[in-house]
Amino acid sequence: MHITVRRINHWFSKATRSDVNDLLGKIILSERQTRIFEMFYLKRQSIGFIADTLGSSQPVICRELGVIRDKISTVI
Q1: Contacts (Cβ under 8 Å, ≥6 apart) of 25
Q2: Which whole number is the average pLDDT over 59-69?
Q3: How many Cβ atoms sit within 10 Å of the Cβ of residue 57?
Q4: Is the pLDDT of residue 19 over 80?
Q5: CA-to-CA distance for 27 and 29, rounded, in angstroms?
Q6: CATH topology (fold) of 3-73
């Protein structure tokens, strides 16, 4: 697993709702990215489920998560 993914996962394992709200206030996400963020990090839904729900493919959701992770990693 990539070091950035580990660092972000570790941060989320210890984060409070207040921490998450602070994070979201510091990064700019599109509506779609916000929905993916919430589904993946807050609701813990699978990439396959997210892709089906949003009408996308799994590789597209993975790329979006990569963009989201890049934004998160600059803040945490």
Answers
A1: none
A2: 96
A3: 13
A4: yes
A5: 6
A6: Arc Repressor Mutant, subunit A (1.10.10)
